[in-house]
Amino acid sequence: MGKKICMWGFGVGIERAMEMCRDAGIEVLAVLDRDPAKWGAEVQSVPVADPQTLPALAPDAILVICLSFEGVSRQAASLGYGPERVVHFPQNPLEAMRRLAGNYAVCCYDYSCEGETLHTKRRRHQVRGKVVADVPSPHPLDTQRAVVAQLLESYRRATADAKNAPPAYRVGKNWESLLRTTRKDFYDAVDARDVDWLTLRLANFCRNDLSTSILGGEAGFRAFAAHPQQEPWLLQHMDVWRALVDGEHDLSEAAMPPIGNPYGYDVEGWTINWNSFVNHARAFRVLRLLEEEPRPVVAEIGGGFGGFAHQLLRTGRPLTYVNFDLPENLLISSYYLSLAFPEKKILLYDSPDLSLDRAVLEQYDAVLMPNFMLPKLQDRSVEFFINTISFSEMEHATICEYFAQIDRSGERYFYHENLSCHPAYKGFPVAVFPRLTHFRQLFASFVPWHGMDASAIGHSYVAQLFERRAAKTAKRPQAS
Question: How far apart are CA 453 and CA 31, in angstroms?
Fold first, then answer.
């Protein structure tokens, strides 16, 4: 037999709370409310009752739906229900279900219309727990070692040539400090050309400090593994993702591939990380904007571990993805994409004399370059530029240089997500980003993801989309 509960108070999400309880085999005895005018009414066939009837109803627990949790908790305690039996739904719905039932599911909705009638179909995805055990790679270590040996030589050439790059392309103070404090063993291995050490570290980069600040690093993984509760982002990200992809895509498409020993939640057998829905939704919207382009070039400045690129290339859509990044991060994304897509043609850095004109780009599925190669792009050769979460971390002179290069080499769109504010650590908000001469802004909005949206005081992010201006035509002659 499942638990029997009472809900307390009306609030946004009470219908979803009812559905989630029924999915988990929890019987809702009544909805308690202090307003006598509501007593005797029903919510989805569940009666609304006076809170004073709580002892007679004798539920196993109380699920608080309204926001006034502390006040409800005090009244529940006076009726014999201590804090261990009172659960707050709005704060974290999936954690509330975990506490009540021990298992939980994320739900999403499909909508359709027949005339004026709206039809809603609910999809339920069981959360099987956390993925913290090792996820084996589909590639044997010998295969990985061969890839890493090639990447190591490309990395060594890039770092050597970076010393001669203009000041705007040198690592900024934020990243210089982070790299110096988290990569000492890495730099020692590079100096020794220790391919075996580097192969093992890259095989587990999702869980060690090679991914610090691009995926969370070792601290991020350990915090996730140790945290006993269900993180609130999973349900919220599912809702946002379904809306942004127009309800057209399956959960499996957003999952993390078994490269780099990923971690996250096991949802119906798929590994879902905080980044999964974010990167899939970004890639979907980019490809939707470029659906009429036969073979677009999509260039990312600061590609991180390669999550967005993976979602672009996974579709099989004819395109060229180009990444410009610091050599240390470029090594991670190059490893990720090389093993995720061994069949694709990928161009790695070899020399500062390498040509990046349109004819060269179109010969490859992915072109992975250190950031100082950005000026090598041909004028108006990129259909879509994108940057997410990293412009604000750069020196202001570097931001200005990147915007100038985008203004020159961008042909259609430029999209970025960056800080709306100035947090405690150094960061430049979008308000001080330079203006573009050849692009006009189409929209600006807060990003919708948990922890980054408008409610994230001091750490919120704004998304901006720009389109290249059409060439001005001659003025129509005036009628005489």
Answer: 32
Instruction: Classify residue 425 as left (phi > 0), alpha (psi -120 to 50) or beta.
Output: beta
> How does strand 439-446 pair with strand 461-468?
antiparallel
Asked if residue 209 is part of any domain, the answer here is: no
Q: What does the buried/exposed string (b/e) look like for 128-139 if buried means 16 or more CB atoms within 10 Å of the residue's CB? A: eebbeeebebeb
Q: Is residue 37 in some structural domain?
A: yes
Could you tell me how many residues make up the chain?
480
The DSSP secondary-structure symbol of 130 reads E
- Residue 23 sits in a domain of what CATH number? 3.40.50.720
pLDDT (tens digit per residue) in 113-161: 999 999 988 888 989 999 999 999 999 999 999 999 999 999 999 999 9
Q: For residue 422, what are the contacts with CB-CB under 8 A and spacing of at least 6?
A: 428, 429
Q: Is the pLDDT of residue 474 over 60?
A: no
Beta bridge partners, 367, equal 322, 347
Structural domain containing residue 93: 4-102
DSSP state of 87: E
